[in-house]
Amino acid sequence: MSNDNNEVLVDVQGVDRVFRRGSEEIHVLQKLDLQVRRGEFLALMGPSGSGKSTLLNLIGGLDRPSSGTVAIGGERIDGLNDRQLAAWRARHVGLVFQFYNLLPVLNAQRNVELPLLLTSLSAAQRRDHAVAALEIVGLKDRNSSFPTQLSGGEQQRVGIARAIVTDPTILLCDEPTGDLDQKSGDEILSLLQALNREQGKTIIMVTHDPHASARASRTVYLNKGRLLAEKPE
Amino acid sequence: MKFAGLVWSNLKRRKLRTALTVLSVLVAFLLFGFLGAIKQALVGGVEMADATRLIVRHRVSIVQLLPVAYEARITRIPGVVSISPQTWFNGIYQDPKNFFASMPVAPASFFDMYPELALPAAQMQAWQATRTGAVVGRALSDRFGWKIGDRVPLVSPIWPKAGASETWDFEVVGIFDATKKGFDTSAFYFRQDYFDEARQNGKGTIGWYTVRIDNPANSAAVAKAINLEFENSPAETKAESEGAFAQGFVQQFGDIAVIVTAILAAVFFTILLVAGNTMAQSVRERTSELGVLKAIGFSNEHVLSIVIAESLLIAALGGVLGLGFALLIVAAAAPALATYLPGFFLPAKNLVAGAGLIVVLGLVAGILPALTAMRLRIAEALRRSA
Question: To pair with B81 at 20 to 30 A between CA atoms, which of A34, A160, B62, B75?
Answer without folding.
Answer: B62
